[in-house]
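tokens incoming
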């Protein structure tokens, strides 16, 4: 298990956290986010295969075009996020209750 902040994520909504998310996913199967933070993603992120991203109801703000998959990989579980932005439906299992 890894906390995304340990891989350089800031979660302030201003800094691009794309690279930190990719590094955390490369090293761990379970990546946890901090509740109340705003993680800004500006490009598709390679998550890998069979990963779990647990948002703890953090906001995941995607600023890409919306025409590409945000999370690249297979058989991943992305859970408990508030999603903001234009998301194309990826080949991922989503268990999200709040989409803005």
């Amino acid at each position: 298990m890894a906390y995304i902040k340990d891989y350089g994520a800031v979660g302030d909504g201003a800094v691009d956290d794309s690279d930190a998310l990719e590094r955390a996913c490369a090293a761990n199967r379970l990546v946890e986010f901090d509740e109340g933070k705003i993680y800004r993603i500006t490009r598709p992120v390679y998550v890998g295969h069979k990963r779990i991203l647990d948002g703890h109801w953090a906001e995941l703000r995607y600023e890409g075009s919306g025409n590409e998959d945000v999370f690249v990989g297979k058989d991943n579980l992305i859970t408990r996020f508030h999603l903001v932005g234009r998301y194309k439906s990826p080949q991922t299992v989503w268990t999200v209750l709040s989409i803005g």
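note: The radius of gyration is 12 Å.
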